[in-house]
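Subject — a protein and its fold

Tokens — whole-number codes for backbone shape
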Amino acid sequence: MGGGGGGDHGGVGHVEDFRTKVWSMTGGPNCRPKHWRRNTAIAMAGIFLVCIPLAIKSAQLEQRPHHPVRPIPSQLWCKNFGNKEY
């Protein structure tokens, strides 16, 4: 009655680190990949290059058919609103 299983389960001989075979969202043993600062800077630059022109175009196209009840922050930079006394 030889206990079943495989031949490596005795704990004798070659010991391998199991963490290199485990996948995790945080990266496991490789949680700091090479050039992470550069990659983060490139991603942030890409986000800004997309979001800033989008926000500028949104402010140009903003229209309000009725006066707001309370102040709206976008009225500070929106030129289409007109008189800001409310």
